[in-house]
């Protein structure tokens, strides 16, 4: 099942064409998006997702998203979704047609969760570290690189995942030129040492994680320590446990890194997911 609604709230047939062939989102990846997890009709972290959508749009000099319109179209899709359980809700905002009147394109698409994502929630992932090709020092000097924006330009991310597959891995953890850890193609890195959770800082040019933020809030209430600080490639191998946090896969354990099995973190994963779920109970 899929549910499509345009930004004006109109439901549309997802099997029919709606995007113009000259839409700059399709031609150049000139746009931004968010993926929101919806559980039993309730969107998780919708406010932070819309905040991030607005930040990304500002970095691309797109018109400021109409927050009320995005909230309405989100509810339109949720109301039209007639299945229990979970749904992935994609919010897409592009610069619009190249030969149009300058009006951006916006729509929301409800999708079932991919079987692979559900499987990885349980089985964990094997990951490889790959260079991302920049030094964090460039972030404040080069805003045109859009580091930290969630753009539609995901070709590099998808290429990295395909490369990982050729090495027998499921996932990628990007590292910078100075060997500091960045993020996954669609996830945030969380390392566990004792009762401390660590994640790299957004200042390194990565996307602030909504799921990671929810986990850290819950962990702090439960007495854990949390740190947003630089993490090195060596820190990953030395962590007690390593996880990737994302809206759809929630808190997924990394069971193998660069071909080396990591300590079994099944129990710790259950603990962290319980903390995360406590945000919504």
TrEMBL record:
The alphabetical list of record keywords is:
Lyase
User: One Pfam family from the UniProt entry?
Assistant: Aminotran_4
Return the InterPro entries for the record.
Answer: Aminotrans_IV, Aminotransferase-like, BCAT-like_C, BCAT-like_N, Class-IV_PLP-Dep_Aminotrnsfr
Q: Name one GO molecular function term.
A: lyase activity
Keyword set includes Lyase: yes
Gene Ontology biological-process annotations: carboxylic acid biosynthetic process
Coiled coil start-end: none
Q: Which family does it belong to?
A: Belongs to the class-IV pyridoxal-phosphate-dependent aminotransferase family.
Q: Which PANTHER family does the UniProt record give?
A: AMINO-ACID AMINOTRANSFERASE (PTHR42743), AMINODEOXYCHORISMATE LYASE (PTHR42743:SF11)
List the protein's name: 4-amino-4-deoxychorismate lyase
